[in-house]
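subagent[fold] <- orchestrator: predict structure for attached chain, return tokens only, no commentary.
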Amino acid sequence: MSHIPQQAFKVARTAHDIASQRLRAHVERLAGEIGERNVFRPEALHAAADYIEAEWRSQGYQVVPRRYDLSGTEWANLEVARPGSVRPAEILLIGAHYDSVRGSPGANDNASGVAALLELSRLFADMTPALTVRFVAFVNEEPPFFMTRRQGSVVYAKAARARGDAIRLMVSLETIGCYSDKRGSQRYPPLFGFFYPRQGNFISFVSDFRSRALMRRAAQVFRRRSDFPLEHVATSRFIPGVAWSDHWSFWRQGYPAFMITDTAFYRYRYYHTSQDTPEKLAYPELARLTAGLAETFSALALAGLDNKRD
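subagent[fold] -> orchestrator:
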């Protein structure tokens, strides 16, 4: 057996180690103990950053804080990486924002994404991928910075382009913890309901047209390696929700990117409210999803993003 299949097998075996209890612990720390975390509650936002940094250091990573100044206060996008052994300059970037909207503790939006990010990085800590896998926790995704030049991921993506970072694919983990088998639990923009399920029991991969090839490839790998229900779509950036996360910042810099989401406000009734609390999330489903993503990202990172091997 060659080196790359051995690594893939190792990650496939360890994906089952993702436990719903660990995911819940991350969410409860961020959205329960720390709670609402944004520039209007700066101590809480810094506490969230400290928690993520401590978790990554405990996993053996060297954390790189990508700092920037905002109205006299310094904020940081936090970055760790597993260097590639074959093509280290090429990057698969997996990210999630760690702030919450004003007035919300942000359990699903987006402690769920951060929890998965932390568990994915834990599984990758002993892996040697072919290309570099970079994990980034983004700050200031929510209003008043959303889709402005001061949004954390906008600052990060612009700096990455200026450095010449060869980001082959960016994936945003955004609001991924709500699932229901109840018919009618899923809503859509106009016309989409004719083509997709009425039960909100699936995860969705969402891209624009330019990123659809890599998004579809990731979806194919996910379906081969996980039985978790998946739907995917490549569509216009102007449809409400399609561009509403940090992948948008990378589109603006010409990088391929897509979002992984439970569809947020199209499903989750507590979206951007004070009721977005840790007990609302479906942790067994979140664990199954995260395990599937671990195997998918490991396959992509080991085979590379310019061929069909996985």
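orchestrator: received. Logging for downstream: The chain is about 35% helix and 20% strand. The beta strands are 64-70, 73-82, 87-97, 131-138, 166-173, 203-207, 230-234, 257-261.
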